[in-house]
Specification:
Layout (H helix, E strand, L loop, with lengths): L1 H6 L2 E6 L5 E6 L2 E6 L14 E6 L3 H15 L9 E2 L8 E5 L5 E6 L16 H14 L4 H15 L5 H17 L3 H13 L4 H6 L1 H4 L1 H10 L7 H5 L1
Parallel strand pairs: 4-7
Antiparallel strand pairs: 1-2, 2-3, 5-6, 6-7
Helix pairs in contact: 3-4, 3-5, 4-5, 5-6, 5-9
Length: 233
């Protein structure tokens, strides 16, 4: 109850007898809970969950981030409960509550033909980057995404374009921050800064190059800088 109320949900129904039942409402979203199974292990995060389809996900994520900062002084981004992070262009995020329920907010126009494992139209490091994106955004598997990028950079980095190397390093840097890999993060920053990127390439990759900075600000509680793309959404 404390977690959902911190997010701004109101308790609309609460009953303990003859059986356990709890209901919350936030705007036009209603969440109803019954008693968990006898052998429930919240750490498995497989208790239950639901999909919440919305027109645009970013405002919901921003509202929950602000509510958590107001209540706890920071965003609960790791462990349980938590709010998964969000980057511009992302089409979903998750709320994981203290008992392992997963409430997934999904944008209505999210592609239905998502290719898990990376798009078949891509090759080399570009395919690895796409695979890491899916692991990070759709499976909430930061470690798997980091491992995929490490292997991909070692295997395809030398032959990849400088733009793809920059994209891979930027994605890996963001994951290093999310995983608390300070030493690795510093090394990745240096590698990224050493790349001979043209002004045009830096402009093309602006959002990806700023991803790690946005994540640091979000974790630290600094208000996000709203890009043109974000404002349009």
């Amino acid at each position: 109850m404390a977690f959902y109320q911190a997010l701004g949900f109101a308790v609309t129904y609460q009953m303990t007898r003859p059986y356990l039942y709890l209901a919350f409402r936030w705007r036009d979203i209603h969440l109803h809970f019954g008693k968990g199974s006898k052998n429930l292990d919240p750490s498995e995060e497989s208790t239950g969950g639901c999909l919440v389809l919305v027109d645009t996900v970013e405002p919901y994520h921003r509202a929950f981030s602000e509510a958590l900062r107001a209540k706890y002084g920071k965003v609960l981004a790791t462990g349980r409960p938590r709010l998964t992070r969000f980057r511009p262009g992302q089409s979903r995020f998750s709320l994981v509550d203290p008992t392992g329920n997963n409430i997934i907010f999904i944008q209505r126009d999210e592609p239905e033909d998502l290719e898990y494992g990376g798009s078949a139209k891509l090759t080399g490091l570009a395919k690895v980057i796409d695979n890491a994106r899916i692991l990070r955004e759709f499976k909430n598997d930061d470690k798997g995404a980091a491992r995929a990028l490490d292997i991909g950079l070692a295997r395809f980095g030398a032959e990849a374009t400088v733009v793809d190397r920059a994209r891979a390093l930027a994605a890996r840097l963001e994951l290093a921050i999310a995983l608390g890999e300070a030493t690795q993060g510093q090394s990745l920053k240096q590698q990224l800064q050493a790349l001979p990127l043209s002004k045009e390439a830096r402009s093309q990759l602006a959002e990806e190059l700023k991803a790690s900075e946005r994540l640091e600000n979000w974790l630290a509680g600094a208000p996000p800088r709203r890009t043109r793309a974000t404002r349009r959404r």
